[in-house]
């Protein structure tokens, strides 16, 4: 019994978005060293579980890291100095690396017609370029929107998390492999330039429809365009079948 307990370690959780809340439901609190988040609602949730909680940027926060860290949609890029404080730090990414590095990989997969999926990888100094632990490719078709593909990618992320969490908490050595060459990488500003300033009049009907599909996501505006002096948004709404 004592031997089994000895191998269970506490890990740091760097969390963001609604999947961060899901993560807190999946890990027993006695296996969490601390939670670092930029999200006030997540911080409040973690404190309600009596967890040590840091609300702020992990790069500038003062804390003693655990041996292992796990980033789940944490929105800030970690600097090399912080990364080296961890023995290992993992990231759950909603893209099929090396495609979809950077921001909004689900949008870029649909718009650029590149592979989509979820990847569990080690964090290194180069953003989203760390060795891969495991990944799941998610297929899509011409009927998918950003929202519908997001749901399937989220399921893939959750499956990866649940499969590898026990090994991470037990401190096991998890095999990895380098990422293939190539892939894609995009900045946040590239996404907003397309969303807000696309020269949509110059697009073919096929490309325009694909861009609208990729930008159709519940809770967010679609492709924003200007007609005359007014702004409009283009998005797809499914019709209810009788």
Describe the structure.
The structure is a single chain. The protein has 242 residues and is an alpha/beta fold. The chain contains eight helices and eleven strands.
Concise overview:
The chain is α/β, with parallel strands linked by helices and 242 residues long. Helices cover 33% and strands 22% of the residues. Helix 5 (105-112) runs antiparallel to helix 8.
Write the layout of secondary structure elements.
Elements (H helix, E strand, L loop, with lengths): L1 H5 L4 E5 L1 H10 L5 E6 L2 H9 L4 E3 L12 E5 L7 H4 L4 E6 L7 E2 L2 H8 L3 E7 L9 E7 L7 H24 L15 E2 L1 H10 L7 H10 L8 E5 L2 E5 L8
Helix pairs in contact: 5-8
Low-confidence stretches: 1-6
What is the total domain count?
2
Strand order of the largest sheet: 3-2-1-4-5-7-8
Query: Could you say what the CATH architecture of the largest domain is?
Result: 3-Layer(aba) Sandwich
Strand content: 15-25%
Biggest β-sheet strands, sense, barrel: 7 strands, mixed
In total, the number of strands is 11
CATH superfamily assignment of the largest domain?
A: Formyl transferase, N-terminal domain
Give me the secondary-structure category: alpha/beta
- Give the proportion of residues in helices: 25-40%
Count of individual helical segments: 8
Order of helices and strands: HEHEHEEHEEHEEHEHHEE
Keywords:
242 residues, alpha/beta, Rossmann fold, two-stranded parallel ribbon, globular
